[in-house]
Backbone:
């Protein structure tokens, strides 16, 4: 399973206050998120490390800095990978969320593919394979 850092985990990893990181996110001063589970978005640890290593220092004219410049982003920067939340998986399978919760508890769902913080999810392909197998 791929783990993406939540905003709080990102803040902890780079030793910056959570409220400051929220401000940075709002101002567009953080790199684009690498993955999302439902509406929860997060970053790969290497993205956070790269950002910290290339962060504009104190006293810099941040109003002149282009945070979207591709030359300032990691080579691994890609589109945000979407993982289905349990609710999205249930909707895709046309099964109630409560039934899906039971399936998860009983171990009848496939293993999750990714997580943002503590929110776990499945790639659409994983869900589709499970749904197809269920229909057989």
Residues:
């Amino acid at each position: 399973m791929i783990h993406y850092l939540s905003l709080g985990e990102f803040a902890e990893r780079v030793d910056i206050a959570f409220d400051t990181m929220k401000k940075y996110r709002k101002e567009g001063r953080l790199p684009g998120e690498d993955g999302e589970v439902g509406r929860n978005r997060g970053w790969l640890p290497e993205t956070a490390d790269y950002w910290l290593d290339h962060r504009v220092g104190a006293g810099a004219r941040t109003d002149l800095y282009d945070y979207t410049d591709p030359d300032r982003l990691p080579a691994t920067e890609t589109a945000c990978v979407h993982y289905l939340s349990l609710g999205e998986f249930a909707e895709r399978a046309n099964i109630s969320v409560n039934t899906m919760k039971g399936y998860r508890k009983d171990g009848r769902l496939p293993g999750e593919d990714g997580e943002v913080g503590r929110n776990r999810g499945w790639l659409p392909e994983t869900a589709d394979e499970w749904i197809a197998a269920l229909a057989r």
Remarks:
- The chain has two domains: 2-72, 81-135.
- The chain is about 40% helix and 15% strand.
- The CA atoms of residues 3 and 115 lie 5 Å apart.
